[in-house]
Amino acid sequence: MDLYCVMGNPVDHSRSPWIHARFAELTGQLLHYGKRLIPLDGFASAVSAFVAEGGRGCNVTVPFKFEAAALASQVSDRATLAQASNVLSFHSGAALADNTDGAGLVNDIQCNAGFDLSGRRLLLIGAGGAGAGVLGPLIEARPASITVTNRSLHKATQLLARHAALAMLNNTELMVKELHQLSSSFDVVINATASSLSGGAVPVAASTLSPGALAYDLMYGSAAQGFMTWAREHGATPRDGLGMLVEQAAQAFMIWRGVLPPTQQVLAELRHAMQATS
Ligand code: NDP
């Protein structure tokens, strides 16, 4: 049976094994998808061990996305721009890196939530592996502007520099601001930080939310609840990252298996299953 997995630290919360098992069932593919907790200094050797076991591909989550792009022998254009990868495919011992996080986020916002990003003012909080992966596809949705902020500002500045040409092509204004210097409000606020994984507070003030703004946390499940409550209490429309998770997984499944699974059905089933167990 073809072997796949998700590698991360932490990884216990990941729903990817459930999603890929369901995709396989619905598309008639035979595969096994597991979950691996990787020591923080052990990503490259974990990938080598998985390839030696016959692994065909893996998803990569926090905090290994930059390392994943760096170790691959071939890197897609979007992963090159992000310098981060959430999908590795293994062929004849070589690792190919791609990044489906941004496509997943944009599909969820525009197709599943029905929210058109074009002409909007966006705030992207976070410049880690996930923030880096979503910026390019967000620009390609042609918003009026994207402001990027991050606890370590230099990472946001470097990210912006890599995306300047793409932003110009798409008529999107790109800016970097310190977390505490955000004085305007936005139509869409996207939390791409890992702060909720460690029980941290929402990293920006509520004044960043314009009335009726879409407030999107890439996190999902109980860890996203603080952000969702904060958004609702301040008049925004909250959305967690479950739809993005399913959409980015579907794009990875397509890369590995050449079949696009039915995402809306799987998202509805996953949400139902998570509500039943919470
Ligand atoms: P990384 O470890 O690569 O980056 C973490 C990011 O979070 C950095 O921007 C970091 O800032 C910031 N951060 C961490 N702790 C805090 C804090 N206490 N306050 C403010 N900022 C903080 O992780 P990823 O980018 O890979 O993942 C980020 C989140 O997105 C995770 O929660 C992950 O689960 C989620 N995710 C969800 C996906 C989905 O499909 N729904 C897909 C991808 C990610 P600094 O640079 O200063 O360290």
Polypeptide structure, described:
With 278 residues, the chain is of the alpha/beta class. It is 42% helix and 23% strand. The protein is built from 10 helices and 12 strands. The protein has helices at residues 16-27, 43-52, 65-71, 77-82, 101-112, 129-140, 153-169, 225-233, 242-257, 263-277; strands at 2-8, 31-37, 55-60, 74-75, 87-91, 94-98, 121-125, 145-149, 173-176, 186-191, 209-217, 237-239. The chain has a 6-stranded mixed beta sheet, with helices on both faces. The chain has a 6-stranded parallel beta sheet with strand order 9-8-7-10-11-12, sandwiched between helices. The longest helix is centred in the middle third of the chain and has 17 residues, at 153-169. It is globular and about 55 Å long. The mean pLDDT is 96. The site of NADPH dihydro-nicotinamide-adenine-dinucleotide phosphate has 29 residues, from helix 5, helix 6 and helix 9.
Strand and helix map with partners:
Elements lengths: L1 E7 L7 H12 L3 E7 L5 H10 L2 E6 L4 H7 L2 E2 L1 H6 L4 E5 L2 E5 L2 H12 L8 E5 L3 H12 L4 E5 L3 H17 L3 E4 L9 E6 L17 E9 L7 H9 L3 E3 L2 H16 L5 H15 L1
Parallel strand pairs: 1-2, 1-3, 4-6, 7-8, 7-10, 8-9, 10-11, 11-12
Antiparallel strand pairs: 3-5, 5-6
The structure holds NADPH dihydro-nicotinamide-adenine-dinucleotide phosphate.
Can I get a quick summary?
With 278 residues, this protein is of the alpha/beta class. The protein has helices at 16-27, 43-52, 65-71, 77-82, 101-112, 129-140, 153-169, 225-233, 242-257, 263-277; strands spanning 2-8, 31-37, 55-60, 74-75, 87-91, 94-98, 121-125, 145-149, 173-176, 186-191, 209-217, 237-239.
